[in-house]
């Protein structure tokens, strides 16, 4: 019997198990959400005020309550609370709205609203976060892929592109434990991003620090402070830093924040004053009572790590056991974040995802991690191990590995 | 001594009291916020699920939890929960974002994004809500004032304008207990809005039903269901209905909703899927446990009425006592809402607000209730009695009435 026939036989057996497993979404597991349950008891009918005694219930406070601004100052690594806005339950909304405002009005360095320009482009280090790419596509922003290499996005490509083309208005970066590669940017990448010359005066770095405290163990990545470096380089307005507690407390009921220069923050406040009379301050009080301060938030993350580290470990150990040394695939072994990135040989990813799906294992669509859903080498697959149980992951990954072997064998048959 | 000198003397006496009173803002008073405090105890670490047992803590549920959609179906008077989205803490955000999306993409009936058109105009019944006008100004939408008359905006003007000009893309209406006049629209206005011919195929009515349950007593205004009439007239996509619990539970921590045709709702969901992974569902659970259903919400509003009716009464009684029969001013006596609208004789409003301010009584800036902050007759003053105490209102209104007399006397001197 040929190798292909053997693999096909194994696959048919797996398929017969009628599995229904899902490794598509970067959602916290239920036991992770349980970690923050005590927070729900910390604001009550008799106790709901801010530390300073402010009434959190009424309108007002466009940029958040003082203690939440203090927390996000540390979380987003700004120098001052004047460089912070604390918002509602979603940093995705902050990012989307920032782009939307640049499109309709331009930003604080623009002479023209982006929507009035013939063409607007964004650099998209790839593979990357699909929702960043969706926002660009939604607003008609042309996406220019940039390779992800060791230490982050390829700065040689970036520097050449932004220097030459004033229609390139921004770049998306997930600087730490990036989605999906788990890569953290090097000091050199930070320095070069801060210092590079951009043809567009209103160029902005969208620094989505989604996983900044999401370590898997005590062996953590530390990245250089881009905002500080931008200031030193004379480009203080270049960067917007985003973060939220969505994967720290409750995914749907967290608080989010943006860090940027005072000029950028004032620009943002001007826009916010058109669209809201302030964020949900009671929920900010709830969060601050739970964390007390940034050290409290960091301690809390250790509990998350204890829950999800075994899930990452089982993925890696099955990949090593089933695919190690076979030249069929490579994969990341991140120190934090929410994903493991699996690269098959070229031209196999779509087929693997299809085979897995047919066998009852849902994976993120192949291509989703690239602009326009187009992975030019058709090789990247994003694995999201946080939501399923360890036992489910084990079953799912055995199928995934088998599908990698089968797809490769099919291709070479 | 002349009348003017007598009034000037009285005014100087009032000024010497060094008052510091504020009747500018439509904010709930602290005792109103207290009414909803029990809500804060209804979601706890051991009890946070939806009625159906859904986990309210994670991502998902773009359009809200099922029971909140049921509530807003009744609240916004749609036929089905498929015609409802329940969002975050602010209907202002829903309104702003709807306009922003029309500007960047057009709506579900548009052939062109509004931002790509040479000119976009909105009809603005005036006096009206300043934040509606700010949104228009922010997006470069030309505002066309329409007179507010008995029974709502002047339909003769509106019908003629929308039939003739396809750059008129929408109209703002606060249909019940309007801001600031307290006027509720007549059945005829609803019928004519539903049936009128509009040159623009993508014309939209922004029906800001901010005060739909905000009655001051059992003598309530009932308005005809515009959404149902639009459907009957074959114009189901014409209207977006907005509402929130901001002035029902907590002004900063309520929940908001939009009601519209399924076509409009699907359009909106498509946009929302770009900008959020869902609203704060835990806060929706909290609200639903507090209200249980729409009848519960309506009962709750009676407690608000009991608190604020005396505040409205004292404003009216002082106006009547000090200005009644003097041909110096007219004022509304609304059955609900948040405002009393005071019309001085022409050319006096700015002076009254200035005089009052100098005597320590802050009023909403004259002109704020008109597009471009321009009250062509300089006569409208918006009085907001909910936040101050009855005693403060009494002091403030005595000053206001004196200022009306003085400003008029100055003008005729």
Estimated helix fraction of chain A: 40-55%
Number of domains of chain A: 2
CATH superfamily of the largest domain in chain A: Type I PLP-dependent aspartate aminotransferase-like (Major domain)
Shape assignment of chain A: globular
Description:
- The structure is a homodimer of 413-residue chains.
- With 413 residues, chain A is of the alpha/beta class.
- The first copy, chain A, is built from 13 helices and 13 strands.
- Chain A has 2 domains: 3-26 and 298-412, Aspartate Aminotransferase, domain 1; 45-293, Aspartate Aminotransferase, domain 2.
- Chain A is 40% helix and 14% strand.
- Chain A has an 8-stranded mixed beta sheet, sandwiched between helices.
- In chain A, helix 7 packs across helix 8 (226-232), helix 11 (294-323) crosses helix 13 and helix 12 crosses helix 13.
- The two termini of chain A are 13 Å apart.
- The interface between A and B is large, with 55 and 55 residues.
Distinctive features:
homodimer; 413 residues; alpha/beta; Aspartate Aminotransferase, domain 1; Aspartate Aminotransferase, domain 2; 2 domains; eight-stranded mixed β-sheet; three-stranded antiparallel β-sheet; 13 strands; 14% strand; globular
